[in-house]
Amino acid sequence: MNIGLIVVKVVLCLTAVGWLLTALKVWRKRQEATWAITPDSPGVSPDVTVSIIIPARDEVGNIGACVAAALAQDHAALQVVVLDDGSTDGTSQILAELAAQWPDRLVVLRGGDAPLPKGWLGKPWACQRASKVATGAWLLFIDADVRLRPHAVSAAVAWAVDHELGMLSGLGHLDTASFWERVLQPAVGALIMAGNDLDQLNDPEHRSDRPLANGQFILLERRAYGAVGGHGAVAGAVLDDVGMATAIVGSGAAYNLLMMRELFSCRMYDSLGALWEGWTKNLFTGIRRSFGLLVFLTIWLLGTVFLPFALVPLAMLGLVPASLLWWGLAVSGIMLLVRAYLDVAYDMDPRYGPTQPLAVLMLVALLWHSALRTVRGTASWKGRTLDLDPSEGQRH
Description:
Blueprint: H1 3-32, E1 50-56, H2 63-71, E2 78-84, H3 91-101, E3 106-110, H4 122-131, E4 138-142, E5 146-148, H5 152-162, E6 167-171, E7 173-174, H6 179-194, H7 198-201, E8 217-221, H8 222-227, H9 240-250, E9 255-259, E10 264-266, H10 272-286, H11 291-316, H12 323-345, H13 356-376, E11 380-381, E12 384-385
Parallel strand pairs: 1-2, 1-4, 2-3, 6-9, 7-10
Antiparallel strand pairs: 4-8, 5-10, 6-8, 11-12
């Protein structure tokens, strides 16, 4: 038998087994729910003070709902601080109206649009300035596209207090609305989570030297935050969330990442252009700016996700042996069934499962685009070209 054909069939077998094991693992984790908090989780004592800090730059479509959800928390000892980072789209007017309605609980700061200090990126600098006026013993940093459920703050702080954490981050529900969001976002999310098991990540003896964190929800105990210099620890970091978790763990404080899908949601990007720009600035740094890892991921994604689908038309056209038609159909079918289960489990639209081959091709293209833009120093976000910290992707 042709050696190449044997290799392809072995890869297909391993692919099918891998997808089935993934479904089993997700099912088991959902049954255990070891690292999850929900609306039914215990709340924190009402006298524990918390400040929610929201950096906002040109967020006219998000800021009103974000602030309203923050103010609607069931925890009473709460302050909300928003830093308006040079917005030009109407964000400032919405914030002025909200501040007039909530003068005792909402603080709005005008950040201006002056050049950033040397060595700082926009989001860390906005968070650093906002933290100076925050009064809470706990500081919760969220993005303007986050929508907190009423019990989110109380449940998260209660967990952090009970487990004596210096930092807690959460993974919420990913909202998608447009076609391209529903195609690409599940693929990117799956890639990120593939190498980040929560049991391992939350075990100080086995976690990565750069623990995963989610910048949509970063809860910090004030003393732990101050001990690392606040956002000065991640001043030039594109992945300021991962950088902050790394700094906190390095300082000796405890850290957890939790599933919080019922406690907050986030629609990260609302168009293909925003998707492309947003992930361009993050993905290559997320793989430590390693071209070796980039090549490996390219081969792995194309070989274990795209290949089974590609074999079907190739076999029908006579471009590969006819026996591979049934192999392609079988493995593709297993992948689509597992994808449907995962979509239902995580409240994604299962109708988009058949777009998996397109998503993988887009993801590979996005990874390479991110690498080239990062190396050239032309990655950008919110109208700012990112002056990247050259050591960020290399820290171990």
